# Entry
Amino acid sequence: MMAGAKAGHIVALCGGIGGAKLALGLSRVLAPEQLTVVVNTGDDFEHLGLHISPDLDTVLYTLGGIADPERGWGRAGETWNFMQALAGLDGENWFQLGDRDLAMHATRTSFLREGGTLSAFTAQAARKLGISVQIVPMSDDAVRTIVQTEEGDLPFQHYFVRRRCEPVVKAIRFEGARSASPAPGVLELLAGPAARAIVICPSNPYLSVDPILSVPGCAMRWPRASAGDRRVADHRWAGRKRTDCEDHARAWRVGYDRGYRGALSRSDRCARHRSCGCRRRHVRRSPGAGDADNDEKRGRPRAACTRGSGFCRGPSGLIV
# Structure
């Protein structure tokens, strides 16, 4: 059990921008010892010799009160002198790193190279930013989201930011997940008597939540939890009925026969679309689209609407 965890503890499984917003709200209504935010690290990668943790940094910046409110990622008041100088040297400038943001990446990289763990650095950074709730990576081991496309395998950031989701997706895998271990204390918290609820933040199910659940033991601990008031709450669907189309759109593009909270099988898609009433208003988005984490993240512009992508708008207007 993590230090300080008490009865009524909430565990929030979190991605980047959208998840960080809910985590911030939870931190404002819960006592610090009642909340632990477990953050996706499948997006992590090395760039220009630096260890980049996009979702962790977004959560740290948001809860630390220094996130850019317009972009949703990065720090407020950011400057871009480094990127301008990098472009002038024909360096790899496809991934935006602000001048202030660089301090986080450089410090983390140095910490890890000296033998520290990602969870230890995250705890240290949270304290420096005045964050009192617990923020932990899903694992201290390397788990990397790999997007399998018609052009070959692409690390997530290369697919999402560098290629702007252009290659057609065939499947998604989480490299290193089978041999990874949850960060210290995560399994004990998920299975312990203090945990009252597991909250799935409004983060992309395939790209932000699934990587967390792919770490051995995380998903299996849910039904074993012994708390009397046990719930799994998904903020995205709170208060409204989920439609067949929404379930189905998540599974269609990558052909999953199983999916996030029971996505429909690919073989049923045509019949389901005819009956769901969504009018098949498709948008040309990737499996990385459809939530606040991925709308215009890292400067990617919104794609134009089109048919045939397998993603549609549900009755509430939510792009899934």
Notes: Strands lie at 9-14, 35-39, 45-47, 50-52, 134-137, 144-149, 152-155, 169-175, 195-200, 231-234. The mean pLDDT is 76.
